[in-house]
Amino acid sequence: MDGYCFEPQVDEDEWHETPPKRLWSMWCSMPYRPERNDPDRKRLLVVVALMRAVEDQLTDPRLRATIGVAEAAADGLVTHHEVEAALRRAEEAYDGADLPDRAAAAAARLLYEENEAAEMLVGAAGSRAALLAGDGDRKAAYAAGVADMGDRIARMIREVHGNPFRTAAFEPAWRTDTAVSLARGMYEARDFAAMPILADALQDVGCDSDGILSHCRDPHQVHVRGGWVVDLVLGRS
Questions:
Q1: Domain stops at, among 132, 161, 190
Q2: Same structural domain for residues 148 and 226?
Q3: Segment 101-150, tens digit of pLDDT
Q4: Could you tell me if 226 and 161 are in contact, meaning their C-beta atoms sit under 8 angstroms apart?
Q5: Are residues 190 and 133 in the same domain?
């Protein structure tokens, strides 16, 4: 990807492992921008997608609000002042809580500390699973919740970054008004049900990339903002 550095700590097979055996090595392998004055868009959108999985644990609206602000910050839609204000409100909510939990801590760090936020989300998912277990085996439920969030992180990394070992080529001729309109509509609505239709639109104008087309048509694929195919169509990085 233009403007990104890729320094993998896993090999290509490990990048695609399900469940991931070296999750945090995979996390550290994500392509990154060498010059960072603002949050890294793609890394931030990975964490935003994961935050939505534990959003029900954020009882304070100031903490929930950081998800939307972080998403807007990733797209440059809020000012630095608005980001700082949201961060202060989140920190106040976290510091004032009687029993600050990991989901709240992740929300308070979401805007500028994506790495720490992601690590906290793993614990938050485990805590949520243990709570839902009630009188059952809470230790086993916690472990299962942690494993599930680890798998989600790996899937979100692959959804946003694709396969950085084999960057997919995208011809400008495929970026038609129809394709762009479909991609933009899904992105703005956070509703990616039209991905198979996008595949048809791309194929109609000559797209023969099996990686792109199969990604769009995979019924089991979870799509989020920042997803690599939609970003390719929109010309985003």
A1: 161
A2: no
A3: 888 989 988 888 888 999 999 988 998 899 889 888 999 999 999 999 99
A4: no
A5: no
